[in-house]
């Protein structure tokens, strides 16, 4: 199943490799689910059971510009640092022994296509696989982690490095939470849609040039381990987002560092999920 947000309404989306189509979930289910997208995660098990036996229409063609964030109002957004060894190395660290967790504030979540204002000249890119919680998780064993995941989506952990690394010690969350700094989408895809949900290719291109490529099998802490570690401390709630980390290739790790510039377009992808496309604009100096 591929759940998306079309013009603010919950929708079932088609294969991203084909022409994009959608089926309105509220209409198809006779009003049982939707139209609000976020409400679907509170009823995830019932939605999956209904979908398994549903006879759906072919759907209507849609434009990528119609798509909003497939999780528009998460209560909690977690992110994990240095969760690929090659990214830890380019950052000057060794891989951690326990997950390094910070937050992105929910107001920065946006859809898969759009413009993002650059607040400075030190904004960096970080492609990430994002797990979406579909079942409340508290003190969950690692072996049961996948049972609490609604599905997977693509994400960008955009980061203003100047703000992120200011101070001694630095703090991460504000520099990663400017408006538009958490684009996700185009859909939340259930694990059964993948041959191996623990081994997906992901990456991003800047102006058509590849800047990051990786495979999620190289995560230091995979999704079940992250679900277990976080849920030992606090409950994970339906619709929460978990940004799982980025592979090597970020701008800060280059010599000299290379950051995003006004007018550039960043294409982000996760195989089997689809792609994001952000165009960057100059800061609004009138404010």
Largest sheet geometry: 12 strands, mixed
CATH topology of the largest domain: Fumarylacetoacetate hydrolase, domain 2
Radius of gyration: 18 Å
Query: Briefly, what CATH class of the largest domain?
Result: Alpha Beta
Rounded average pLDDT: 96
Name given to the CATH architecture of the largest domain: Alpha-Beta Complex
Report the structural category: alpha+beta
β content, as a range? 25-35%
Q: Please tally the helical runs, counting DSSP H or I stretches of 4 or more residues.
A: 6
Calculate the terminal CA-CA distance, rounded to whole Å. 43 Å
Shape, please?
A: globular
The helix/strand order is: EEEHHHEEEHEEEEEEEHEEEHEEE
Report the uncertain regions: none
Proportion in helices: 10-25%
What is the total tally of β strands? 19
* Total discrete domains: 2
Q: What is the name of the CATH superfamily of the largest domain?
A: Fumarylacetoacetase-like, C-terminal domain
Textual characterization of the structure:
The chain is an alpha+beta fold and 287 residues long. It has two domains: 2-68, no CATH class; 77-281, Fumarylacetoacetate hydrolase, domain 2 (Alpha-Beta Complex). Helices cover 13% and strands 32% of the residues. It has helices at residues 25-28, 39-42, 44-53, 85-90, 161-164, 223-231, and strands spanning 2-6, 9-13, 21-24, 60-61, 67-68, 77-81, 100-103, 109-110, 113-117, 123-124, 127-133, 149-156, 159-160, 182-189, 201-206, 209-215, 241-243, 265-270, 274-281. The relative contact order is 0.20. Keywords: Hydrolase, Metal-binding. Belongs to the FAH family. It comes from Amycolatopsis antarctica.
């Amino acid at each position: 199943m591929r759940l998306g947000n079309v013009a603010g309404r919950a929708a079932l989306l088609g294969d991203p490799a084909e022409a994009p189509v959608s089926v309105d979930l509220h209409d198809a289910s006779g009003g049982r689910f939707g139209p609000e997208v976020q409400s679907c995660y509170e009823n995830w098990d019932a939605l999956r059971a209904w979908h398994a036996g549903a006879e759906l229409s072919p759907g209507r063609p849609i434009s990528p510009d119609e798509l909003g964030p497939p999780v528009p109002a998460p209560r909690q957004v977690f992110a994990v640092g240095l969760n690929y060894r090659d990214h830890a190395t380019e950052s000057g660290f060794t891989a951690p022994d326990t997950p390094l967790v910070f937050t992105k504030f929910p107001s920065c979540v946006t859809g898969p296509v759009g413009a993002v204002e650059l607040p400075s000249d030190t904004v960096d890119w970080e492609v990430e696989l994002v797990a979406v919680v579909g079942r409340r998780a508290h003190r969950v064993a690692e072996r049961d982690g996948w049972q609490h995941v609604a599905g997977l989506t693509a994400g960008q952990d955009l980061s203003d490095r100047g703000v992120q690394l200011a101070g001694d010690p630095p703090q991460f969350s504000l520099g990663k939470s400017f408006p538009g700094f958490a684009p996700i989408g185009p859909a939340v895809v259930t694990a059964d849609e993948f041959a191996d949900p623990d081994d997906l290719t992901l990456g991003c291109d800047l102006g058509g040039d590849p800047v990051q490529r990786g495979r999620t099998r190289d995560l230091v802490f995979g999704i079940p381990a992250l679900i277990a570690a976080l849920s030992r401390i606090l409950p994970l709630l339906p619709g929460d987002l978990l940004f799982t980390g980025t592979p090597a290739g970020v701008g800060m790790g280059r010599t000299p560092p290379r950051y995003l510039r006004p007018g550039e377009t960043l294409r982000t992808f996760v195989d089997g999920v689809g792609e994001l496309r952000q165009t960057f604009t100059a800061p609004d100096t009138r404010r």
